[in-house]
Structures are given as C-alpha cells and as structure tokens.
Amino acid sequence: MKTFVLSLLSAATFSLSFTATAQDLEEKKVFSESPMVLPPAPEAANLLLFYQSETQSFYLDTKSMSIAADGSLRYTMVSKSKSGASNVSYEGLLCETMQKRSFAFGRKDSTWSESKRVEWENISNSGVNLQHSTLAWDFVCDFNRISGGIEKIVQRIRRNESIQRYH
C-alpha cells in the first residue's frame, strides 16, 4: 500500500512539473515585432476595394502588401468617404492574436507621419472599425494564421470570396 501511495505521489509530482514546464515554455514565447518599413504612397491604380459601409469605402494598396517575418500582414489602407474625404494609413494585422496596429498615417504631400501608438489592438467586429474585421475574417486569417500568400489574399478580395464560407 505504501508503495502504491508513493507511486501516486511521484506521478502527481511529475505531472505538476510537466505542467509547469509547459507553462514556462508558453510564457517564454514572446512576440518579436518586425521592423517597420514604410512603403511608397499609394497610387490609385493599385487600390483594391475590400469593404464598403454606408458612408465610406475601404481600399488596400496591393503594391504595399507584404507578410512580415513576425507573421503579420502589412498593408496600406485608403478610406474614402462619400463626401470626398480620404485617409491613408499603413497598418499591420496579426492573425495569431486577431489584432491590428497603425504604424503611420499618410500626409497630403505623400509622406508618412508615424503613429504615436505602439500597441497592437484587438480587432472588433462591431462599431466603426468593421473594415478590420472584414479584412481579417473574410480575406486574410484562417483561424490563427494568414491563409495563403499575398496573391491568394488579393485574389479572394477581387472575387469577394470569404474564407469563412468554407468553414
């Protein structure tokens, strides 16, 4: 009986140490963001419509799209309001955590102003930022990874083929 109890205690201790080791490994996996390299200002010929709301249309500059070493999709987004106003931003989308980040904002003289915010933010599928959730869920992310390369993403947007329709 004593041997049986000791065996159980040994197994429990091993199990706890294995769990602690797995947690330690998980904690050591730290996101290392790739350096930001700003693309040239977008040109109208390279803009691809991917989302429209009642008041705005959202485009990606296909020439600016890349997959960074950190696993994020980098792209220039152009939003145009029905009244004619336009905004340009260079952004990142991280499928692993379903987050986005604005790296810089376009100026009228085709230069960039770096964002003061350095945090990645959760993507919401409600409110005024539906363009990000549409981009992520419909065209880029298949669960926690980018689905295909840039060419495949652009192809899905052109055909308006949501990744989600296959799940």
Helix content: 25-40%
| Portion in beta strands | 25-35%
Helical segment count = 3
Radius of gyration: 22 Å
Total E-strand runs: 9
SS-based class: alpha+beta
Distance between the termini: 53 Å
Order of helices and strands: HEEEEEEEHEEH
Poorly predicted ranges:
4-22
Query: What spatial form do the alpha-carbon principal axes imply?
Result: globular
Average pLDDT score: 85
Q: How many separate domains make up the residues? A: 2
Biggest sheet descriptor: 7 strands, antiparallel
Description:
The protein has 2 domains: 1-30; 44-166, no CATH class. The protein is 29% helix and 32% strand. It has helices spanning 2-28, 130-140, 150-159, and strands at 47-52, 56-67, 73-81, 86-94, 99-106, 112-114, 121-122, 141-142, 145-146. The protein starts with a helix and ends in an 8-residue tail after the last helix.
Task: Give the SSE layout.
Elements: H1 2-28, E1 47-52, E2 56-67, E3 73-81, E4 86-94, E5 99-106, E6 112-114, E7 121-122, H2 130-140, E8 141-142, E9 145-146, H3 150-159
Antiparallel strand pairs: 1-2, 2-3, 3-4, 4-5, 5-6, 5-7, 8-9
Which terms summarize this structure?
2 domains, 167 residues, two-stranded antiparallel sheet, 9 strands
Give a summary of the structure in a few sentences.
The protein is of the alpha+beta class and 167 residues long. The protein is built from three helices and nine strands.
